[in-house]
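Person: I have long wanted to understand how a fold can be written as tokens. Underneath my words sits a plain record pairing an amino acid chain with its backbone structure tokens. Those tokens are not coordinates but codes from a learned vocabulary of shapes. I should like you to check that the lines agree and flag anything odd. The protein I mean follows directly.
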Amino acid sequence: FFSVMTAISDYDALLADALSAFTKASDVLGGDAVPLAASAVRAFEAQRDFLAQAVAMPAPADPAPLLQPTGQALAAAGDLVGTLKRGPLGNHAQALQEGLGALTWVTVSPTPVPHIAEAKDSMQFYLNKVLKE
């Protein structure tokens, strides 16, 4: 039996573990990595809030109002990436933006898995550039 609250708790654990490690690594890099990490955290937190609301109600006819905070967080991250992509962390920023694109999985029907895989592959392209730097 799949519990909705278990799913939200699992998401919270993911946020606590993975994003904590990500923000700590960004703090070590310093500079523009810090606001980049903060923008990712905001996007994942907005997604978490959406998921918590979505599981507590029937599917709305228009999910746009529920998705607005996630969209705003993604747009803010995209704006930040746009200002940084020509700088020393340009590939880091671009990788983040590509990876955050996976958060739009909630708008993909009927199966979001290929969308997530595509975002992961796009992110990996820029992470490979980071590794070569």
